[in-house]
Design brief:
By secondary structure, the protein is an all-alpha fold. The protein has a domain at 18-56 and 79-121. It is built from 22 helices and no strands. It has helices spanning 16-42, 45-55, 76-85, 91-104, 107-118, 123-137, 141-150, 156-168, 175-185, 192-200, 210-221, 227-247, 251-263, 267-275, 277-280, 286-298, 302-312, 318-329, 335-349, 354-363, 368-379, 385-391. The N and C termini lie close together (6 Å). Keywords: Membrane, Transmembrane, Transmembrane helix. The chain crosses the membrane at residues 21-40. Residues 46-85 are annotated as: Disordered.
Length: 404
């Protein structure tokens, strides 16, 4: 990631009904491939089932049949024959089946009707199921609660569809639904991966209350939280971004992320907490500036120290940041952290950082050519950091971009 960039693109999918006309052909093709594949595996039974499916007027039902054993002994010739004998579906047949599902499915029948489709590995099929379930949930807290209960014992594919549908639904913003998500996400009886998925459904919240922030931070610091703790830290950071865009409020979230980043015993959780503020890029107040300054001398992970330098570049007190970077540079042994301190000095103070950068280049002569490059660019009249960065002769002189 380029140091001047503080956000990543997010995939956004619109409601299914707005995509259906454009997506019918692709989804029909995906379901056609799935149907033919299943018919091939079933051998001669496929022709009879295909004829039945084409004339059936009911929405697709889950199949109780299983593929025949002994597939390893099937010759390539036999597979070719079975494929040749399989019935051919045209787009009209697939379109009609999918449309009946779309119009006829309800929340009560969704799980049974979706089961055969979940056997598909096609992401378009899963996207359709997620979008349709999101529509079925709507703004209804009761429906959201029903889907949330499904997640307790759902298999991996089901769980992903259910969690994503909840996350994108309007009901997830209702207080009673959000509370239940927190309670289940922190439920010690659930496995860590499931708890992580549930906590991630809170990412779209507009804000988190002080109580929820405290509970998530305490959970993330718990050595036993595992993947769930990592997800809790990420959720705090993502909601911070939502709240900051809406109200420019980041301080309470930064405080909890700093607490996690300095107190968690899990290096991955600490790095998540220290690095994610880069996505929001808030201006740091005095308390946050002091907190991230301490990270530069206490954090054991070089990646965590580099992330702290990135965040400090947006402090409201650029003079303090330059002093902090100058004192941290010489004892720092990792060249990539030194590179972060060097370039983010320019981001923090612009051309006023050149004296500090010159001193750094004297301490570590490897930075002499890069310093001269910065000096040349500022002398040309360019002052905006992004343009300065793009004008550098080499943006990765020390092979550190994979760590940013």
């Amino acid at each position: 990631m380029r140091p001047e960039s503080s956000s990543r693109p997010t995939l956004v999918s619109g409601p299914w009904r707005t995509l259906r006309r454009r997506g019918w052909v692709f989804l029909a093709g995906a379901l056609l491939i799935l149907a033919v594949g299943l018919l091939v595996r079933r051998g001669g039974d496929g022709a009879a089932e295909g004829h039945s499916a084409a004339s059936n007027t009911e929405p697709p039902q889950p199949s109780s049949r299983t593929p025949r054993a002994g597939g390893g002994a099937t010759s390539a010739h036999a597979v070719e024959e079975a494929e040749a004998q399989a019935p051919r579906y045209d787009a009209t047949t697939c379109w009609r089946d999918l449309e009946r599902f779309n119009e006829g499915v309800s929340l009560e029948t969704f799980r049974d009707w979706a089961a055969p489709l979940l056997a598909s590995r096609d992401p378009l099929v899963r996207m359709y199921l997620k979008e349709r379930l999101t529509e079925l949930i709507g703004k209804d807290a009761g429906r959201a609660g029903q889907v949330l209960e499904w997640t307790r014992e759902a298999g991996p594919k089901e769980f992903k569809v259910f969690a994503m549908a909840l996350k994108d639904s309007e009901a997830v913003h209702l207080p009673e639904v959000a509370r239940r998500l927190v309670e289940m996400g922190l439920d010690a009886e659930l496995d860590s991966e499931r708890r992580a998925g549930l906590l991630s459904t809170l990412d779209t919240q507009k804000q988190l209350s002080p109580e929820v922030l405290t509970r998530l931070a305490d959970f993330a610091k718990d050595p036993a939280s595992g993947e769930g703790g990592w997800a809790a830290a990420r959720t705090i950071a993502r909601v911070m971004k939502n709240d900051h865009e809406r109200s420019a409020n980041a301080a309470p979230y930064l405080d909890k992320l700093l607490t996690i980043g300095t107190q968690s015993l899990d290096e991955h959780v600490r790095y998540m907490a220290l690095s994610t503020p880069m996505e929001t890029a808030p201006v740091l107040d005095a308390q946050a500036t002091d907190g991230y300054s301490k990270v530069l001398t206490t954090e054991g992970s070089p990646d965590g120290r580099a992330a702290a330098a990135h965040n400090l570049a947006l402090s409201s007190d650029s003079a303090q940041v330059l002093d902090t970077f100058s004192r941290a540079f010489e004892p720092e042994q990792d060249v990539c952290v030194r590179w972060a301190l060097f370039r983010f000095s320019a981001r923090a103070a612009g051309r006023d950082a050149l004296p500090v950068m010159a001193k750094m280049a004297l301490v570590d002569p490897r930075f002499q050519p890069t310093y001269q490059d910065f000096e040349r660019i500022y002398a040309s009249g360019v002052v905006d950091f992004e343009r300065v960065w793009l004008a550098l002769a080499d943006q990765d002189p020390y092979g550190c971009l994979h760590r940013d």
